[in-house]
Amino acid sequence: MGQVGLAGAFAGLNIFDNSTSVTFDPSTSSLLSRTSDGALAALGSTNSGGSISSGCALNDAFYFAGSFSSIGNTSASNIASYTPSSGAFAALGSNGPNGAVNALYCDASHNKLWVGGHFTSPGSSVAVWDAKANAWSPPPFGGFTGAEAEVLSITPNSSDSSLFFAGSFLTSFAGNGITMNNTNNPNVPYSPGATPFSSSLVPIPLQGAEIEGAPSSTNPEFSNIQNILCPAGPDGPGNTWLAADGNAAQITVRAFSSISAYGVRLGNTFQSGYGTTGFSVTSIPDNTVQTLQYVDPATGQNMTCTDTCPLSTNSAILYQDFLFSGPVTLTGVQITLSEYTGAAPGLHILQLLSAGAFASAIENDNTQSCFAPDPSNITSTGTWTPKNANTNIPATLQTVLVSTVAVGTPSSQAPSFTWQPYVSASGQYDVNLVIPGCTDFQDCPLRTTVQVTVFPGDGSHYVTTVSQQNTNDASTLVYSGPIVPSSPNFVTTVSMTLADNPAGDGQGGQYELVAGNVELVLTSANISSSSGSGSTGGNGTMGIGGTVNGFGFFEWPLSSASDVNASTTLSNSTETFFDTVGFDLYNALGATTSTSTIAAVVQHPSGAIFLGGNFKITEGSTTGNANIVVFKNGNLAALTGNGLNGAVTSLVLYGDQLFVGGSFSDTNSASTQGKLRGVAMYNVQSASWSALGEGVNGIVASLALANGQIQVAGNFTEVLSASGAGAEDGGFAVWDVGTDSWVNSGGFLVGNITFVGNGTSPAKGQEQSQFVAGNVDNMATYGASGLVMLSNGNNGPVVTPLGVQLDDPVNASATTSAKRRRNHNRRVPGSWIPHITLRNLFTRQTTSSQPTALPPLPPSPAPAILAGAFWTNTSSSQELAIIGGNFSFPTSSASSQAVAIYNPSGPSVTTLQGSQVNGVVRSLLVDENKLFVGGEFTMSGSAANGFAVYDLVAQQWDTSAVQALQPATGSTVVVRSVTATAYKSDIIVVGGSFSTAGSTACQGICLLDTASNQWNALGEGFQGEVSSVSYAGNNDELLIAAGSINLSGSTSTNVAQYSFANSTWTAVGDGADIPGPVTAVEVNNGNVSSIFAAGRSYDGSSTFMIFWDGASWTTVGSSLEGTTNISQLVMVPLQNTHTANSIIESDRMLMVSGSLADSSFGSASAALFDGVNLIPYVTSVSAQGTLGYVSSLFYSFASFSFTQQHFLATGVVILISIAIAAGVVFLLALIGILWTLLSRRDDKLGKFDGGEDEDDDSTHHRPSSLLEHINAATRTTILGTQSPFNNFTSEKGEAAPEGAVASAVDPDPFGPDGSNYLRAETPSDAVVGTLAAEEEFSRPAHARYSFDGTGEGELPLSAGLEVEILDDRDAAWWYARNPQSGQEGVVPAAYLY
């Protein structure tokens, strides 16, 4: 058969086996194995409500963990192992983690398994399993506490020498300096309500501001609001402000100039009967209630509030710092004291905190800040004069100093200006030079560039050239890094003078230099070692405070022999360089650490560490960045777009490509138009984001990297191409890095997939296998968008799924977001069940002039492949598959649909050039280099209607030469069959639903002469619709058409034979024996006396499959249920033979495809029929989890003959071994006969006594021997077939009936020769032609043998007598009427035809 393809409407496919049925309970979590080519296999499921979230491979075992109490039949608490070689699950000892496990790391070098999660034993959040000793222990550092005390990720550094732990926890290290007030800033009084970060922010001097508190207390000792800006003493008279009794209060601060503030510092009053308990802060002039972040002094947890915020009434809390989400430009604030205790609210301290530090060019603005020993200062050379301008903030005025200098003046002789800002504490700062816009000052022509030099305090200086030609106000970064005072008297300086090469021409020969403000923005209160070498000594931090806190990140060297406790304060000797990541996170997240998590970490070979999770930076230089940051060059840094707009769950690094999964849709700045849905790629070198198509339509929980592909697991139902088209994919998808496209994952899953990870190391030359876990609704071993390729393998058929991702057609209606899913219940095949004749199970239809319509085509939800053909491209010598159906796929220019060329070796799919098919393709034929396409479609710019021709060499549609098909009134054209015959070249036969072809009247079937492109009718008298066409004869000289067919004389036949030699149609058998329209037909190796047909009954309630033996139609496959739809019948070869029988030879089987429901094996999409049994072969499932169906099997040999033995290594040779001993067959046959005989109303077994002497010449009695009766009756009772012979030869040599047409006598198929094959070209003379007797409630039949009918209720028969069958519901005995005598009674069914 050559190459073989199996096509249909399915997303997943299984090869049926006899194993225990596999069903899934979505309330459990299932563990699956995944081969390197993507094939899936179910291994086991947890208890209901269980979950699997992580896994890793160590030695020959795969360890997996989550929250469960059992897996398969094994009791295991939250963690277990699976050994692929034995297929066994095992628990990991006793005393394991007593809570959920989120992360695993397999340390192969030490043979240990590191476990992280939310538990308290064996360690707090972390435990270690020694795989050699089979024992649990806490980690060497004890574990973590604080925040949520939960580990979400354990990953190695880039050299695998240390582990990074991430999650929601706190760490603390001893600082290098002397402990002062337990805070990083010795100049600020200690308070548990402050942080090292907030205490380093210099308060903004408010001496010149307008401050009003109302209503104020009438007590003069507590009514002056100015007293609380920097109180001179403790809480009490002269140092505290109280509101009027019985009133809430508002404090309004107006600076009338633009200032940059980071928050407020409030100290409560503890005067008896007074105190504030709740407040809010509104910024002026935008009148915005600010969200504040703070540390709860009672718990140490970071908190967030808006309205109303709590203020502690604990007298041990001197003050609390409440920070904005980032620096805010404002002109004032309004603080509403809305809740209080006692008589009225009050405050002891009120300060507005800056972004870090500051200095103004206007000397009077540099007043002394509270807690500062000295104010900021300025110095200058040359002449500087004030200059005013209005700002865009109402009621504010901006004042700067300017100095003019002649064009051409050297910078060394030009005026200079130096700012000396007061810096409260060491830290990481961004130094910005604020440059007023020239438009407001109306001095743009005078502006030029200046040289700025920063001395941060570490003995070095940094020089930057800055343009002052900006039209609007600008803040230019002139330095970013540590500021560390070298002595108590040292101050940071920022100096400015004319640039060495000033820009611009000036005006009137003059340049103007402008001095405004300098702002220092604190980004971190911790200072990293200047070496940046990553050394692990005690020099990792240089903060002055007694302890350094970290959040969500901790590094542990695998070689460390330290025995410490990370749940307490660690010695700085254990601190590593990368522990700074945790310190910076602690400061950058500020009050949000209680709601933040770090869920994923990965280190780039350059040393940069990427951290993803659920967080938002609220302090420092990366303020506003969310959910993903990078730590490089000793600092946290923002990614392009300020991170992502949703949480990050997983990170995978592939070279310089960082793949990110989570619940986001875009960057935080919305720079990709919402195309980063759930998964994205960040290029480390170019610092740019890229979409994976357009992502997925849900949340991604886990990512993995294997074999050059990214595996994506989560809770989604579609992957989205770059065009936005969605392809259904139920929770597991694969992105190919090389082609930058979504590709077939190889298997099929429907569910909420929570984990994917690599399995044990592959053998040499093999690729990486994986494990997948989650809440599975449905699964199939192979995943494909409607096509798999089949080839021969050592242990069964080798299945290669379609290697590309197909989408819904571009004009398909939108599907709802809710996907219907159900379990696919697979039943094991039952015991052997015979097929029997059951014609009267189907409702009969009376003869009419118009054929009944064909059954509706089965639904084919996109993407579906319904037809295929092979073509050898002579230019490349490649054998390609051409596929057609209901699908689309993206191309470089647009989206193509319905038909494509598929290269399995690529794999790749290419479009047919020219106009696109709009509709569904149902049939394909390649004849030489012409492609004939049939279906229900139109084409833009063409009259093509359901049929078109494409030149594969010229790569263009041949639409002008062939006239279009036309439908009957009120219907549409549907072409279901396009075939060629070996009888004559240049002939194509097209079958379907249509009335004319161009001007040629040829209803349902028409012949196309490809040489002249002319349509021709096939004979005369044919009416109806054709569903399937096959050929018979030695040279395809006979065409067998099936469907809903009437021949001349309004005879309903549904299977008809056309002779090319004499151009005539004849019915195949009695049309009354065919229960309804036929949907599929197959001729067994050209044998006109061996035809199979299948379809649905006239009322649509039942399915039938029947066999023509040259004499009559009989039912086979009677175990098929009414919901079955059969789309194709095709004979396939076997490698192993089955037991021969009278219907199908031992070297082949009939493959029955469609959507099959059977009482013995359940559901299937394809089954093999050996003449006796239906053997399930393939099951499939749709993308929604419902049953799929197989539409066709197609192969590359243009003509296939069993006598030629075309079995190629690359072709399909179905490996079915059926061993049914002859004794078993006879026993089953005998049991069936005994049941038949005993079912008669009277016991007449004596009538079949072989000793009963009959006249040798008589033909008016039944066969004389019991064996002969068994032979005759078994054809109906066991095999469901009539005798294929005209004459019966008994043991006593009965002659042929009188008047019967003589014919050759074939040996009994149950005789001693054992061949059991129907002989080719031996149709029964008795039934050749058409029976046109009118049917109402009866049907005609003829007696094959005589029957004496002497028993009660029996009807006597004479051979050749025509009778009317009134009831044939019993398989063995039918109720009939003799129309000549009017007598009625029962007769043996086997005696009639």
UniProtKB/TrEMBL annotation:
It comes from the Eukaryota. This is Uncharacterized protein.
